[in-house]
Design brief:
Layout lengths: L2 E8 L6 E9 L4 E3 L7 E7 L2 E6 H8 L12 H8 L9 E2 L3 H9 L10 H19 L5 E4 L1
Parallel strand pairs: 3-5
Antiparallel strand pairs: 1-2, 4-5, 4-7, 6-7
Helix pairs in contact: 1-4, 3-4
Length: 144
């Protein structure tokens, strides 16, 4: 959950409001479903906000993604299918959190009980990406 605080600055006395600014404070998002000794992928905002995924869970989610109407992959799915970006460079910085968030959001999850873990992984990624976007933070991805 993202916490939003309104901060009011007053000039000339109590009750006279000049400006309102919103500060976004990221809630700690920590999720880990790795399997010891198996490859994993890590999405990191900072030491309190991260998601560690067993590569099998990540693959299962990404394989549900579909090409765009023009037949091409969007940014996130393109990096995934081309095995580049985060696969080749540790602490690879996501170039556009909004584009990647849209990509994850648009992955369809079939309505059956076998996909409960995939849905949970998708929901956790959406939470992390949304919080990073709202707090103007970057997300780094590492595959190891």
């Amino acid at each position: 959950m993202l916490h939003i605080f309104n901060v009011y600055f007053y000039n000339g006395g109590i009750g006279h409001q000049n400006n309102t600014f919103k500060y976004y404070i990221m809630k700690n998002i920590q999720f880990d479903n790795t399997i010891l000794g198996e490859p994993e992928i890590k999405f990191t905002v900072d030491k309190e906000n991260f998601i560690n995924l067993w590569i099998g869970s990540f693959d299962e989610l990404m394989e549900l993604g579909k090409p765009m109407a023009n037949g091409k992959w969007d940014n996130f799915l393109l990096h995934y299918h081309m095995n580049d970006g985060f696969y080749n460079e540790p602490n690879w910085v996501i170039p556009s959190i909004q584009d990647y968030l849209n990509s994850i959001t648009n992955i369809p999850i079939p309505d059956n009980t076998d996909n409960s873990e995939v849905k949970m992984v998708k929901d956790k990624l959406i939470d992390l990406f949304t919080s990073a976007l709202m707090s103007n933070s970057e997300i780094k991805i590492s595959y190891f």
